[in-house]
Specification:
It contains twelve helices and 14 strands. The chain has 313 residues and is of the alpha/beta class. Strands 3-2-1-4-5-7 form a six-stranded parallel sheet, with helices on both faces. Strand 1, helix 1 and strand 2 form a beta-alpha-beta unit. It binds 2-amino-3-ketobutyric acid.
Length: 313
């Protein structure tokens, strides 16, 4: 099936892989990648690419009209750790970019939106284990507040204006193709790079900090499955809980030591510890399983094998 797709924030950790998977699925010319800066050569050269500021409504509208875009994946965002340093910039980027695409859909200029939320919508008073879909949410970070507000707006635009917006609450994402930037869960990517480069890693989170995580292939599959799902089956228009694996730094370290026995980890928690402490340890994603058949395929061992094999190359 042919359709015209725009990815905003295509050069980031998720956007880079999502663009290539969607190009393989729908054809290179059907998937327009855009970002505020150029990304990898492969991404920029393999199909249409536009320099685009996600906060500029007129610029997005121009691209949408020019390419006759039907679906938008809005992947541009400032993540948790950076957002604590630049609260107003984070709020402006995370909220204005969302309003831009919601309003384009309200005006029927685009048909369907994917917008990523995060486990950061939960806060210190949320039940930590098997965090339910519907529960107490009092996020204590700038990023979490923006994502929770975004969820409310998505649901509102769906109910009030019939906007077809779909979303998941991503856990920490682990990938080898593109580095994450400015998140609290970034340690779970850095640790593999450092294990191979130096045989040692200074972890910025403390032992015992168990967080929900996911290998990127699972995250991309979840995103596309949700976008392909029958609209009548979707019961959540804020954002779906999405789970895969949960581990603490010493557990990922152990899984690396199974391959690199001499690998050493030390723990030097910094300001990101408070952010991590406010987030869940594991996620109940039964709604996503029931509504659109979500099932993860990567456990920690499989993730570690993939990461080490690919990074070694
Ligand atoms: C972050 O750490 O900020 C992100 C997230 C969990 O949304 N990876």
């Amino acid at each position: 099936m042919q359709k015209s797709i725009l990815i905003i924030g295509a050069c980031g950790q998720i956007g880079t892989e999502l663009t290539m998977v969607l190009r393989a699925k729908y054809g290179n010319d059907s998937v327009v990648a855009s970002d505020i800066r150029e990304g990898s050569e492969n991404l920029v050269r393999s199909g249409p690419f536009e320099l685009l500021d996600a906060t500029n409504y007129a610029a997005i509208e121009d691209v949408v009209m020019h390419y006759e875009i039907e679906e938008v994946y809005l992947m541009a965002a400032m993540l948790s750790a950076t957002a604590e340093k630049f609260p107003m910039r984070a709020w402006n980027l995370n909220m204005n970019s969302l309003f831009n695409v919601l309003n384009l859909a309200k005006e029927k200029k685009i048909g369907k939106i994917f917008w990523p939320s995060s486990i950061a919508v939960f806060g210190p008073n949320t039940p930590k284990e098997q965090t339910p879909q519907h529960t107490l949410m009092e996020p204590s970070t700038v990023y979490g507040i923006s994502k929770q507000s975004g969820e409310r707006w998505c649901e509102y635009y769906h109910k009030k204006f019939g906007v077809d917006v779909r979303s998941v609450r991503y856990p920490g994402l682990i990938s080898w193709k593109t580095l994450p930037g400015g998140g609290t869960t970034d340690y779970a990517v850095e640790i593999y790079h450092k294990a191979l480069e130096n045989g040692a890693y200074d972890c910025f989170l403390a032992e015992g900090t168990k967080l929900p995580m996911m290998y990127m292939d699972d995250a991309i599959r979840a995103t596309i499955s949700l976008m392909d799902a029958d609209t009548n089956k979707l019961t959540i228009r804020s954002s779906y809980n999405l789970g895969a694996i949960s581990f603490a730094p010493e557990e990922i370290a152990q899984s690396i030591q199974n391959h690199i026995p001499a690998f050493k980890v030390s723990y030097k928690p910094d300001f990101r510890q408070d952010i991590a402490d406010s987030w869940p340890s594991s996620i109940d994603d039964s709604k996503a399983q029931k509504d659109w058949g979500w099932q993860p395929e990567f456990n920690l061992e499989k993730t570690t094998r993939e990461m080490l094999e690919n990074l070694k190359k």
